[in-house]
């Protein structure tokens, strides 16, 4: 299995595209008049968007290890993935708001049946005011959900930044260790050369001494004879 940064990036990108295709299909399937099916589809879309978001986060991590010579094209692909993710998050929010509005109007119609009294408790004006209040409440809840999602996304970005910093520190430490290993190897080679030269010099010295001793013996022998 290829574990290079480019291969991992492309694998995460492929998974992301599969999630986006599935999400698009579910968003286009409005379920007809079956609201429960529509709600189920939107819940699955929410979970799949979270998975797609995780894929984008992994792509951001892996792009840091890609060589500078080709990193620009992968940055472009990452920006495209982020744009698709934001687009489908907005589509999901719109679909949820539309479904909530439909539920509110339906609840309003059920709670306040039609009446011919212009100012009675069941008048159109009363139903409209009640529906508007419910819609505003639903909008506030949706805004709160979006705010929570943004805060979660910011926290995730901070965590990714910390992980990226730690990874860079680990890579710097590894480079320092590699340089130290090279220095030790060079020092070891130098010491071996010095030891070899020392033995060579010792052998030469012994040879010279042996020659001198031999000459002394020869000279002494000639004098004595």
TrEMBL record:
<dbReference type="GO" id="GO:0031201">
    <property type="term" value="C:SNARE complex"/>
</dbReference>
<dbReference type="GO" id="GO:0006886">
    <property type="term" value="P:intracellular protein transport"/>
</dbReference>
<keyword id="KW-0653">Protein transport</keyword>
<dbReference type="GO" id="GO:0016236">
    <property type="term" value="P:macroautophagy"/>
</dbReference>
<dbReference type="GO" id="GO:0005789">
    <property type="term" value="C:endoplasmic reticulum membrane"/>
</dbReference>
<dbReference type="GO" id="GO:0042147">
    <property type="term" value="P:retrograde transport, endosome to Golgi"/>
</dbReference>
<dbReference type="GO" id="GO:0012507">
    <property type="term" value="C:ER to Golgi transport vesicle membrane"/>
</dbReference>
<comment type="similarity">
    <text>Belongs to the VTI1 family.</text>
</comment>
<dbReference type="GO" id="GO:0005484">
    <property type="term" value="F:SNAP receptor activity"/>
</dbReference>
<keyword id="KW-1133">Transmembrane helix</keyword>
<keyword id="KW-0812">Transmembrane</keyword>
<keyword id="KW-0813">Transport</keyword>
<keyword id="KW-0472">Membrane</keyword>
<feature type="transmembrane region" description="Helical">
    <location>
        <begin position="203"/>
        <end position="221"/>
    </location>
</feature>
<dbReference type="InterPro" id="IPR007705">
    <property type="entry name" value="Vesicle_trsprt_v-SNARE_N"/>
</dbReference>
<dbReference type="InterPro" id="IPR010989">
    <property type="entry name" value="SNARE"/>
</dbReference>
<dbReference type="GO" id="GO:0048280">
    <property type="term" value="P:vesicle fusion with Golgi apparatus"/>
</dbReference>
<dbReference type="GO" id="GO:0006891">
    <property type="term" value="P:intra-Golgi vesicle-mediated transport"/>
</dbReference>
<dbReference type="GO" id="GO:0006896">
    <property type="term" value="P:Golgi to vacuole transport"/>
</dbReference>
<dbReference type="InterPro" id="IPR038407">
    <property type="entry name" value="v-SNARE_N_sf"/>
</dbReference>
<dbReference type="InterPro" id="IPR000727">
    <property type="entry name" value="T_SNARE_dom"/>
</dbReference>
<dbReference type="GO" id="GO:0005794">
    <property type="term" value="C:Golgi apparatus"/>
</dbReference>
<dbReference type="Pfam" id="PF05008">
    <property type="entry name" value="V-SNARE"/>
</dbReference>
<dbReference type="GO" id="GO:0031902">
    <property type="term" value="C:late endosome membrane"/>
</dbReference>
<protein>
    <recommendedName>
        <fullName>t-SNARE coiled-coil homology domain-containing protein</fullName>
    </recommendedName>
</protein>
<dbReference type="GO" id="GO:0000149">
    <property type="term" value="F:SNARE binding"/>
</dbReference>
<dbReference type="GO" id="GO:0005829">
    <property type="term" value="C:cytosol"/>
</dbReference>
<feature type="domain" description="T-SNARE coiled-coil homology">
    <location>
        <begin position="132"/>
        <end position="194"/>
    </location>
</feature>
<dbReference type="Pfam" id="PF12352">
    <property type="entry name" value="V-SNARE_C"/>
</dbReference>
<keyword id="KW-0175">Coiled coil</keyword>
<feature type="coiled-coil region">
    <location>
        <begin position="35"/>
        <end position="98"/>
    </location>
</feature>
